[in-house]
Amino acid sequence: MISELSLIILNYNSADDTISCVNNLLSFKKDFNIIIVDNYSTDNSYSLLSVEFSKMDNIDLIKSSLNKGYSAGNNVGIKFALQKYGSKYIGILNPDVIVTNPDVLIKIVNTLENNDNISICGASIINYPDRYSSRNSGWMLPTSKSLVIDFFIKNKINGKNADQQKIIGDKLAGVDCVGGCFFIAKSSFMKKINFFDEGVFLFEEENILGIKSKRLGFTEAICLDQFCYHNHKHSNKVVLKKQLSTFKIAYESRKYLAKKYYSKKIVPSLYLVYKINVFYSIVSYYVKGKFI
Q1: Cα dist. 158→29, 93, 99, 147, 243 in Å?
Q2: Cα-Cα end-to-end distance for the chain
Q3: Is 237 exposed, middle or buried (0-12, 13-18, 19+ CB in 10 A)?
Q4: What are the structural domain ranges in the chain?
Q5: Residue 235 neighbours by CB under 8 Å, 6+ apart
Q6: CB 3.0-4.6 Å disulfide test: which of 206, 262, 263, 275 passes with 177?
């Protein structure tokens, strides 16, 4: 089964992480495909990745002609995997994720193979530095109300209700949405939903996948006894311009999610929360005296 798996790693200005991620996967010595998509990096990532992996037969390196976001970049890799390998299973893997051992991949693929009602399956995520929270691995879909309330910057939960996870098998939990840093999906499901929705540049991809999965009568799942590390480090140095840009992207993505999959009536409230977040961030930034 593992030979029918293609792992997509989307790189953007993170060659060092991508190299570490790929070398970790290569150490498993298993027969799966690795596809690196450089999402039009602005640094020398593509050159570094080419030097490192261009001569390896089981690794494909693709360079996007434009950075259109997380969804579009991963779609490039997925479509390549389907065209070249006809992969039955598609893995999505952030460059800063380290899979602990090959059994993680094997267990997830076997779970998908043996459960017709499961569309996507992931592992239990351990966030940097060695912190585990079940809501990082998977959650239930947010309500219309929580889409707004949990968008406040001071709310750290962001609608990820882990308490509603259900045990659906031996060491297997059912959720609406699996965390996007690492998961494996049935390619038949991804084709059925026309892949990732490219209407969002970044954020909300998991919720959109969860909505589409649920509408088709599928569930998503987490293998509770399989782990991977997400080494997503947050810098203590806050750059206001970058933070405000992230808020803007997050707002646009949540607005898109609301309009297309919930109700347009939510959008004015989301916009108000977005403006409050911006105001709070600017005031907080200057009050703390962090001038960059």
Answers
A1: 38, 22, 25, 8, 17
A2: 51
A3: exposed
A4: 2-230, 240-287
A5: none
A6: 206
Tell me the two tokens of residue 267: 């959008």
Beta bridge pairs of residue 222: 122, 173
Q: Domain 2-230 adopts which CATH fold? A: Spore Coat Polysaccharide Biosynthesis Protein SpsA; Chain A (3.90.550)
pLDDT in the model for residue 224: 95
Q: How confident is the model at residue 243 (pLDDT cuts 50, 70, 90)?
A: confident
Please choose, from the candidates 47, 106, 39, the residue with its C-alpha nearest in 3D space to the C-alpha of residue 77. Answer: 39
Name the amino acid, one letter, at 6. S
3-state secondary structure 40-109: CCCCCHHHHHHHHHCCCCCEEEEECCCCCCHHHHHHHHHHHHHHHHCCCEEEEECCCEEECCHHHHHHHH
Q: Counting Cβ atoms within 10 Å, is residue 103 exposed (0-12), middle (13-18) or buried (19+)?
A: middle
Per-residue exposure over 133-145, b if at least 16 CB sit within 10 Å of its own CB, e if not: ebbbbbbbbbeee
